Every structure is written in C-alpha cells, then in structure tokens.
Amino acid sequence: MNILRRIGFYHEHMVFADDIRKIILQLADQHGPGNAFYPAEVAQRIDPVDWVKQMEQVKLVAEALISEGQIIATKSGTGIETAYAKPSLFAEHHE
Hints:
Number of domains: 1
CATH class: Mainly Alpha
Structural class: alpha+beta
CATH superfamily: Winged helix-like DNA-binding domain superfamily/Winged helix DNA-binding domain
CATH architecture: Orthogonal Bundle
Order of helices and strands: EEHEHHEEE
Helix content: 25-40%
C-alpha cells in the first residue's frame, strides 16, 4: 500500500489512497453482501464535480483491495480479477 499512499493532485487538494480505500470499503459495507456498486460512485464521493478525473485512482486502489481479498469485482454478475474491466462493479467487503 505504500506506493499508493499519495497518488495525485486534483484541483487544490491531494487525494490519498487511504481515503479512497476507506470510501470503497464503506460503500461495500453500506450496500451489504451480494450488492454491488459502480466505481463512479466512489469517484463522485471524492469529487462530485470532476469525478471522472478520479476514476483511474479509484480503480488503482480497488485493484489493491481485490488483490488483498477485501472486495471482489464483478461484471454482469460474474466475479472477475480486475477493476479495469468495463463496466466493473465492486461488491462485498470481505473481512
């Protein structure tokens, strides 16, 4: 996770991987087991105006969470191993 700690600047604030990670895991918990959500939902929580600029960072952090087994990614209801498939959903926070 150290290489992801500081992943970019947008506008006048810095986006930290830890913040994105927390949002992804919060959304997974809020949606509950078996329910999915879109990466765009995460990006919109970070920056409601320019959320598209956040998508690459969201997917990068999601990839780390997938590899750690914290979340799963699905496409058309089938588990996949990457957050970069289009469209992709993040589902189920695994503890």
